[in-house]
Each structure stands twice: as structure tokens, then as C-alpha cells.
Design brief:
Length: about 120
């Protein structure tokens, strides 16, 4: 089965940086868009950044200029470089991908990672 595994979360002081990574594995034919979402306590999950297989990336207004999303189509990975972190960035961050499965039907799946906690606090 197709899986996404995130890494790189942790505790950081305001103004600090973290880099999140996500690796896709399994019977993958191709990956369309990949993205990062986050969910803070008591709030709905929201899009942070998204990168299609080709074309422009898009970011939530709250992270523009501070976060950068990138992907490696050979390694099937997506990264999120987070700089100038603020306490309001504290959330569980989830990796997301639209995957075409390498099976007889070329099935399409939306896959989520298990989440990684980012805590910004002094």
C-alpha cells in the first residue's frame, strides 16, 4: 500500500527554523500534487503549501515569505522549510499526496501521513 512518512517536527523557539520531510513509498505509478497541511488544537485542518507535479506552488497567506515547499520527483519526497517560526505556527503538520497507483486500474488515491508535531515556544 502507498504510505507517506513525515519527519522533522519538534520544539523550536520563536524565530527559529525547522525542515519537515515526507517520503512516499509503495506501488506508485506517479504522484500529482503534494502538499503540507496543519491542524492546531481546536481548529480545522488547513492548507499550508502545495506543489503540483508541474507548475506554480501556492502558500497560505500566513506563511508566505517564511515557508518554502519543494519536491524531488525521483525520490518521491516533499519538504517544507520553515523559517521565522511563530507561536501561531504550532500545530500537527500532515503530508498529503495525490497518487496514481501502479496497479491494473491505475487507481487514484489521496494519501495522508500520520502527522508530525511542530511546537513553537520560548
Amino acid at each position: 500500500q502507498v504510505q507517506l512518512v513525515e519527519s522533522g517536527g519538534g520544539l523550536v523557539q520563536p524565530g527559529g527554523s525547522l525542515r519537515l520531510s515526507c517520503a512516499a513509498s509503495g506501488p506508485i505509478f506517479s504522484i500529482n500534487a503534494m502538499g503540507w497541511y496543519r491542524q492546531a488544537p481546536g481548529k480545522q485542518r488547513e492548507l499550508v503549501a502545495r506543489i503540483p507535479s508541474g507548475g506554480d506552488t501556492n502558500y497560505a497567506d500566513s506563511v508566505k515569505g517564511r515557508f518554502t515547499i519543494s519536491r524531488d520527483n525521483v525520490k518521491n519526497t516533499v519538504n517544507l522549510q520553515m523559517n521565522s517560526l511563530k507561536p501561531e505556527d504550532t500545530a500537527v503538520y500532515y503530508c498529503n499526496a495525490g497518487v496514481t497507483v501502479r496497479d491494473f486500474y491505475r487507481s487514484s488515491l489521496e494519501v495522508w501521513g500520520q502527522g508530525t508535531l511542530v511546537a513553537v515556544s520560548s
